[in-house]
Amino acid sequence: MKVIISSDKTNGSKKGFEIFKNSINSGSKVIGLATGSTPINLYQEWAESNLDNSNLISINLDEYVGLSPDNDQSYHYFMQKNLFAKKPFKHSYIPDGIKAIKDPEGTATDYNKIIAENPIDIQLLGLGQNGHIAFNEPGTPFDSVTHEVQLTENTIKANSRFFNNIDEVPKSAICMGIANIMSAKEIVIMAFGDNKAEAVQKMVEGPVTEEVPASILQKHENVTLIVDQAAANKLGAKYSN
Description:
This protein is 31% helix and 18% strand. By secondary structure, it is an alpha/beta fold. α2 links the parallel β2 (30-33) and β3. α1 (9-25) packs across α2 (40-47). The longest helix is centred in the N-terminal third of the chain and has 17 residues, at 9-25.
């Protein structure tokens, strides 16, 4: 795992975008994308760049069950606002949160087929405080593929700040599994802030265990971790600048 320690989130995001830009200029066509606060600056860099997405396919990690694309808390809406409206792709795939209300298994099966037909060249990830990647919480099997995830109480509480009240927060999501993520040819994972430092240390230096889902990335052949100084402060001396 290559570790890049940047001075702050802004510079880390610039470095992350450069990796994606270079990958695309080198021929990558299928791009795995993430949502949440971590990639927003990277998407801003992307939206303001001269990079042409018109021949690219994007595949997102996840979507809430029950939210339509026009719901301002859906990940469809997030991607449209932060990237797609400014830099549209040839085709963009995000799980169908409405279909998943009645048929979560079918929705997951359909998404697995999309991933199989469009192997991901480079995947963007954020890192949860407990070591989760996407909605794959501790205990998720490493061989998991796209599935419905029941959100934990902590996740529901954390996400409630985006909704009018906690009762509006979706209770589940359709999410790529860890095996889907690991199938990407290249992975870029970003983490910023001291609240991510423990998860970063466990991911990089701890044992590979399903209790820290991101630790499986130690087994991937091409992973770049981008952190700021705060998120790197528990790493060993070999990673210090």
